[in-house]
Amino acid sequence: MSPLIPAPLNSLRVSKYQIPAYQNFPNTSLRPFPFMIYHSVFPSSTSSVSASSIEAHLRKVGIVEPAWRYTMYTQHHYHSTVDEVLVVYSGAARLCFGGGPANPDKVEVDASVGDVMIVPAGVGHGLLEDKGGFGMVGSYPKGSGNWDMCTGQKGEKENQWEIIKNLEWLKGDPIYGDEGPVVNVGETTEEGH
């Protein structure tokens, strides 16, 4: 397996979004960290992009630990105990971030092979449409323990929101290590809302 080489930072296109709370989904309202998309980090035209090569790259960088290979649940949900890193290794899909398609501040994304999504704890997400063979590697910060699944129920707001407020941010960029958009979260590249 040949190692994956991410796009150079100076040519990386990044979209960042602050998504206000919506119903019982806190989104990015509790911490200053945006939902981010790294567009086409890994060249989808090469056969070297696979779940195994993505997992090997993430382990080599050492910020997150790959945990699963799957699509995205259609049930809109968020995690209160961890930030999540999603890397697409196959197919394409339309995804929704923000707690559901009725949210006027939602972010809909057409994700495809080589895209990376940095999903801060609290940001709701769900699959709108699988456009064929969609698969991702899901990863969480090393040493973070178990992740949870919150679906926007009433009782979650009192319990999980406080947990989210106290979470530490990622200790480095999961793709680039000591530099990159996660580390330089305050710097401007391409902004969403």
UniProtKB/TrEMBL annotation:
InterPro entries: RmlC-like_jellyroll, RmlC_Cupin_sf, UCP019307_cupin, YjiB-like. Coiled coil: none annotated. Signal peptide: none annotated. It comes from the Eukaryota. This is Cupin type-1 domain-containing protein. It comes from Kwoniella dejecticola CBS 10117.
